[in-house]
Task: structure prediction
Amino acid sequence: MRVAELRESTGAVTVMDRVIVPKIKSAANCPIPMCQSCQLSRARLRKPKVAKSKAIPENAGALSRDQYCTGDFVSLDQYIVKTPGRLPTGYGKESYTNMFHG
Result:
């Protein structure tokens, strides 16, 4: 901790000595850390470093091409979810019967 000088509105200067004497001498000169609200108030907007890419039409379905033909046997797992979901056509509060159940 550093020695702190407090100036009052009357013009009086009060010197407050260190309360805790550090073991490491260089620790006495460390600045007082800023609180989180002060750090948030000093924050600035930064641009994301993201590159946009466009899909190439010739490569559409490249991973699954030449694997399956029409009429091939494909098995799928199905499971029931009891939690109802929102439908894209609804708005506001939907009734339980109008929600998606899958």
